[in-house]
């Protein structure tokens, strides 16, 4: 049986706002599109904090290959490496996710998000490994078949292809053409 002190210690550890360190989530994006690397912290627990995003693994402090930082609820524009790096989440709510616009193969690799939690070695660190795939090519294949009978004549055309996000589509076009045939009675009747 545990003593009262043991219970108190167990509860305290269970509620400890300990920093999180992620080993690395893999995110896959398509060349030419936008990719968002999700990084959030508990604003109610910590208040509004400063954050930095960098390329590569995060060092002991700060960010290497700095891409963009915040000073609490606002982006520090002078630290932004490029306008392609955007923090579009609600900073005042703890959403400091990084959106990279118009990604290319050169953007592939490791990224780090560091939330500057006060105190020694308390920072909340998240790593992401970005894989950039070539955008799928949109292809269209067209086939046409015609059938005809005396009246009416119908043409069916099918076109199939693939959209940018890999979904297939089929267009079916029906054209109906009616010919008017005049039949003349040439006599010879009864």
Automatic annotation (TrEMBL):
Gene Ontology cellular component list: membrane
Stored Pfam families: V-set (PF07686)
Main location: membrane
Key word Transmembrane present: yes
Low complexity bias (residue ranges): 138-149
Topology class, membrane: Single-pass type I membrane protein
GO biological process: apoptotic cell clearance; cytoskeletal rearrangement involved in phagocytosis, engulfment
Region Disordered, residue ranges: 137-160
SMART domains reported in the protein's UniProt record: IG
InterPro entries: Ig-like_dom, Ig-like_dom_sf, Ig-like_fold, Ig_sub, Ig_V-set
Gene Ontology terms for molecular function: phosphatidylserine binding
Ig-like domain: residues covered: 19-115
Keyword field: Disulfide bond, Glycoprotein, Immunoglobulin domain, Membrane, Signal, Transmembrane, Transmembrane helix
Top-level lineage group: Eukaryota
Subcellular localization(s) per the UniProt record: Membrane
UniProt family annotation: Belongs to the immunoglobulin superfamily. TIM family.
Name of the protein: Ig-like domain-containing protein
Organism the protein comes from: Cyclopterus lumpus
């Amino acid at each position: 049986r545990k003593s009262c002190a043991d219970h108190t210690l167990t509860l305290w550890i269970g509620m400890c706002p300990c920093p999180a360190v992620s080993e690395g989530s893999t995110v896959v994006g398509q060349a030419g599109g936008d990719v968002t690397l999700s990084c959030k912290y508990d604003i109610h627990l910590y208040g509004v904090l400063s954050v930095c995003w960098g390329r590569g693994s995060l060092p002991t402090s700060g960010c290497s290959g700095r891409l963009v930082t915040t000073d609490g609820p606002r982006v520090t524009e002078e630290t932004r490496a490029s306008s392609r790096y955007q923090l579009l989440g609600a900073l005042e709510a703890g959403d400091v996710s990084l959106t990279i616009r118009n990604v290319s193969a050169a953007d592939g690799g490791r990224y780090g998000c560091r939330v500057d939690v006060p105190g020694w070695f308390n920072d909340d660190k998240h790593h992401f490994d970005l894989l950039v795939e070539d955008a799928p090519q949109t292809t269209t294949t067209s086939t046409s078949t015609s059938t005809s009978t005396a009246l009416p004549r119908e043409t069916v055309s099918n076109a199939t292809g693939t959209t940018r996000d890999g979904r297939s589509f089929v267009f079916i076009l029906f054209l109906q053409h009616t010919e008017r045939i005049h039949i003349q009675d040439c006599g010879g009747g009864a």
